[in-house]
Amino acid sequence: MIETPEMITRSRTEREVLLSCANVTKEFSVAGGTVVAVDDVSLEFPEASVLAVVGESGSGKSTLARMLLRLMPVTSGTIAFRGQDVTSLSGKGLRDYWSEVQAVFQDPFASFNQFFTVGSLLRRSLALARIPSDEADALIEECLGYVDMRPRDVLHKFPHQMSGGQRQRIMIARALMMRPKVLLADEATSMLDATLRVNVLNVLHDLRSELGLTVLFITHDIGQACYLADRVAVMERGRVVERGSTEEVIFAPQAEYTRRLLSDVPDLRGSLRT
Amino acid sequence: MSTPNAPVADEKAVPRGNPFRSLNFSGRFWIALVLVVGVILLGLAGYVYPTGPGEKVASLYDPPGAGLPLGSDNFGHDVLAVLMAGTRTSLIIGLVAGIVATVIGVIVGLVAGYIGGWFEELLMGATNVVLAIPSIIVLILISISLPQSSVWSLAVVIGITSWPWTARAVRAQASSVATREHIDVARLSGARLPGILLRDVLPYILSYTVMAFVLQVAGAILAESALSMLGLGPSGANSLGIQLHWALAFQAVGGGAWWAFLPPTIVLTLVSFGFLLLQSSLDEVFNPRLRRGKRKQMKQAAARRAEEARLLAEQTARTVQGPAGAPRGKELA
User: Fold this and answer.
1) Cα(A197)–Cα(A110) distance, rounded to whole angstroms?
2) Phi and psi at residue B72, in whole multiples of 5°?
3) pLDDT band for position A181 (50/70/90)?
């Protein structure tokens, strides 16, 4: 049996923990056995901070995200929001949870229902936003404002009439409609080109400072994590191998896997090095 | 699945000349449409045809002739008038049965495919059981047990025995749509199950549903005529199958009265052929990979481009060679 490395915890945060998961495991049954996608992961998401989960493809980041969002049941473990166990919510309780915890996904085209306009996408969220109907337009305008868009420019548009960056910003606006406390961005920038990526990263950064949003940023790109995050957790094959503040984890890594990930980051000056 | 990030905002700026152009209706589609519309018109023509289907205008099996374009049947009714009324009945039954079958099939398939798990196993198990029972036997049993068989009851009975095929097709599509990201977004937006099924799943499988519906209509028309020919059709109505039933019962085939059984047979053939052709040509419209004719156009375009490239190459070769006319190949060698 291979010895599994223990999680290295560098420092803990003093801020209040908003969302947390404890010993969360996810197994998928496949032909000839089970695959452990997420293995005994425990993490805390402190209020009004940006936590990045970094790991290569297949390390279980997205599975963890879907479990935290309660879009997928856990095999074992618990997820708690504000100290309340939300692991087995359903129906109204789950919708209440979703009015506090929202997400933006990877593919800015697949996230849209291509048959409906941006306006109907945003209006759909009003049921969870729980505001009087005469304030709906103001809320839509406000949320589009956070991502630097105006209602009269975009509400009538269909997804295919917008660029990838615009679509991703609309998705962020949609997530903000419920005025959530937690925003989970699952590879939200990986299908955008470099300039749009910075644009979306800046939007996420501003939201944290303006709205006190807790951002959970899931990425395979350690550079983006460094740019945005206060704290970083590194995942390898379903396990968290190292976690701590960005400075500690990225600039003085201790886990073997983190060092390897960092050595794979392209270096602009040494780009021709073999 | 990769999607280009290029803005397509200017798509609206250029108005499309003909919106139907982009749908690429093939020749098969138009033939199918002509067949189906022709049969519908034949059914509607009964409203303006001077003779009613129940009027006795001649004696037993009068051959086609003056005033009777298709002769008379065993009751002395005008065959053409009966044919028009029968076509109408068959189309109504096909349409109603098709709607009933499609609605049941879509609901079962959507719910099973979207929810998945044991619920899917249960629903699909039930569907397979219904599928395994020969529907013509169920049809005959239900038709016999109904005290009064009308056009509508027969249509509903045909509909509720033929939905499983639609359910299976819809389930397969729905379970693939259910794993897409926009469903997660809809759930996070607080959408409930009926809303997700109607707005996020159904539109994506609507083309399959339309095709399944067209098949169901054709199948129902044939099922009705089979039942009616066996004498289990709607009482007191005219239909293509009932016409065949009486033609058989009164020895039209043996007696050489072809006008009594050939017209309903031809109309039945045309209508089911028309619907099947419509279904397969709709498949081509919805699924670009199946389009024919396109290949020919593409070949022509490729040939045109190759010709242009050849001319251009010749031109450049001439200018490169220059006035001296030294062969360029040697220079390179």
Assistant:
1) 18
2) -125, 160
3) confident
pLDDT confidence tier of residue B37, bands split at 50, 70 and 90: very high
The pTM of this model reads 0.77
Strands (E) located in A82-169: 84-85, 101-104
What is the secondary structure of B244-269 as a DSSP string?
HHHHHHTTHHHHT-HHHHHHHHHHHH
Does residue B318 lie in a domain region? no
Q: Does some domain include residue A273?
A: no
Spell out the long-range contacts of B285-292 with Cβ–Cβ below 8 A and sequence spacing 24 or more.
B285/B23, B285/B24, B285/B25, B285/B26, B285/B29, B286/B207, B286/B211, B287/B207, B288/B24, B291/B24, B291/B26, B292/B26
B326 part of a folded domain: no
Residue owning tokens 């339309």? B210
Question: Does B190 sit within 8 Å of A107, measured CB to CB?
Answer: no
Q: What is the pLDDT of residues A203-245, one digit of tens each?
A: 888 888 888 888 898 988 888 888 888 888 888 888 888 888 8
Does A142 reside within a domain?
A: no
For residue B156, being part of any structural domain is answered with yes
CA-based nearest residue in chain A for residue B6: A163
- pLDDT tens column, B128-142: 888 888 878 888 888
A120 domain residue, yes or no: no
Domain count for chain B: 1
Could you tell me if residue A55 is inside a domain?
yes
Average pLDDT of chain A is 83
Pairing assessment for the beta strands A8-9 and A239-245 based on DSSP bridges:
parallel
- Indicate the burial class of B158 (C-beta count within 10 angstroms; 0-12, 13-18, 19 or more): buried
Q: Can you read off the two tokens belonging to residue B318? A: 């001439």
Count of domains forming chain A: 1
What element of type H or E holds B142?
helix B135-145
Out of B9, B181, B199, name the one closest to residue A162 (CB): B9
pLDDT given at position B273: 93
Question: Cβ contacts (< 8 Å) between A113 and chain B: which residues?
Answer: 182, 185-186, 199-200, 203
Domain containing B226 equals 42-287
Domain enclosing residue A246, as ranges: 8-107+180-263
- pLDDT exceeds cutoff 70 at B18: no
Closest chain B residue to A123, measured at CA: B189
CB atoms within 10 A of CB B188: 26
Q: What is the CATH number of the domain that holds B272?
A: 1.10.3720.10
Residue A204 has what pLDDT? 84
Contact A107 B5 (CB under 8 A): no
| Nearest-by-CA chain B residue for A127 | B190
A vs B: CB pairs below 8 A: 88
Contact assessment for residue A25 and residue A74, using Cβ atoms and an 8 Å cutoff = yes
Contact B54, B72 (CB under 8 A): no
- Asked whether residue B163 is domain-assigned, the answer is yes
CATH number, domain containing residue A65: 3.40.50.300
Q: Which residues in chain A have Cβ-Cβ distances shorter than 8 Å to B2?
A: 191
